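lol so apparently i was supposed to do this last week
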Amino acid sequence: MRTFWDELALYLEYLKAIGVKTLPKKKAFERFLKLDLSPPPKSLAEIAKEIEGCTRCKLHRTRTNIVLGEGPENATLMFIGEAPGRDEDLEGRPFVGRAGKLLDQMLGAINIRRAEVYITNVVKCRPPGNRTPEPDEIEACLPYLAKQIKLIRPRLICTLGLVAAQTVLATTQPLSRLRGKIHEIDGIKVVVTYHPAFLLRYPSYKAQALEDLKLLKRLYEELK
Ligand code: URA
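anyway here it is w/ uracil bound
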């Protein structure tokens, strides 16, 4: 049987042969998780130290605070949103504004306490005017998310909105195709649902979101 190291050697050889210096987009995130050879960080504090003063992308010019994430280091369940908004940028904490209040209610609906889950975003700095993060910003920030996942090793991830779903699952499929299924990255189950900010704007999608949350809850109980 081929070991991880055999696979890695083959893959590196392949990359070298075709002259690629960065990983291809398709499946990039999962490969990134697997191929990041640096040892997993020892603590969230270590990641916080690394990200301090980050200038890897242009968002550093307009941010107030970096929003790394919050929650227990041994959380079974991780939520991944898109990027901090205005309130999060000011406070340095994820999902504390209106969308965050709705996220709290969504958690309440399935009897999960916010304090027991880890909450973060694909991009750790606020895009100006809350625009969608751009591909170069996502790419620059992905190593931090990979480190958070490698350290926490949640059993289950719930992505919130299209950007998080497409980034984590390394796909361009629409949310409608990704919802209602159990995905997997690096042995971690992934459930996809709508972003709370989207649900604030289009409340008629809340019923579908509740179905996603019920699926999430079932898996959470099984994996806990
Ligand atoms: N929207 C997000 O995607 N993340 C936050 O932290 C807040 C709003």
